[in-house]
Amino acid sequence: MSPARFVEALHQGHAYASLGPLIYPERMFGEELDHQAGTQLILNFSVQAVNGLKSVQLIEQGQVSQTQNLAGLVDLTAVSFKATPQEDTWFSMVVEDLEGKSAYSNPLWVNTATE
User: Fold this and answer.
1) Percentage, residues of the chain above pLDDT 90
2) What is the DSSP letter of 105?
3) C-beta separation of 16 from 99 below 8 A
4) For 7, left (φ over 0), alpha (ψ -120 to 50), or beta?
5) What Å distances lie between residue 46 and 25, 38, 86, 90, CA to CA?
6) What is the pTM assigned to this prediction?
7) Would 1 be classed as within a structural domain?
8) φ and ψ of 5, to 5 deg
9) Is 11 helix (H, G, I), strand (E, B) or coil?
10) Cα-flanking dihedrals φ and ψ of residue 8, to 5°?
11) Predicted local confidence at residue 39, as pLDDT
12) pLDDT (tens digit per residue) in 3-20
């Protein structure tokens, strides 16, 4: 992103700054994804934290379904979760850094089909 585009984004309210964890989703949060019920769904993200990454949790319908511990990694780190939704559901993430700061994502909505 160029400095001019960043300033434009600021004027439009589409930018933020954070010293806490950052999440870069492969599929944009808030999207609806059509997926075959009972088949594996792979959710890929990249995460990063200035203070080092502690953990990433995958949340399904408000409950922690999986956790990955990240041992203080600072660099941009690829994270992948595998789920097998049986019915319509949603997933979100919580990323925690070593100082206890957290980032909470919006959900990714999954619409399942049985055919």
Assistant:
1) 73
2) P
3) no
4) alpha
5) 6, 26, 26, 19
6) 0.81
7) no
8) -65, -35
9) helix
10) -60, -45
11) 96
12) 788 778 778 877 666 677
Residue 8 lies in a domain: no
Provide the percentage of residues in the chain whose pLDDT is more than 70: 94
Judge whether 55 and 28 are in contact, CB under 8 Å. Answer: no
Are 98 and 49 in contact, with CB atoms under 8 Å apart? yes
- How many domains are there within the chain? 1
Distance separating alpha carbons of residues 113 and 115, to the nearest angstrom = 6
**Type of residue found at 76:** L
| pLDDT tens-place string over residues 45-79 | 999 999 999 999 999 999 999 999 998 888 899 99
Q: What is the DSSP string of 78-99?
A: EEEEEE--SSSEEEEEEEEETT
| Beta strand spans in the chain (E) | 22-25, 32-36, 41-48, 53-60, 63-73, 77-83, 89-97, 102-104, 108-113
Question: Is 12 inside any structural domain?
Answer: no
Q: Check residue 74 and give its pLDDT.
A: 87
State the CATH number of the domain containing residue 31.
2.60.40.10
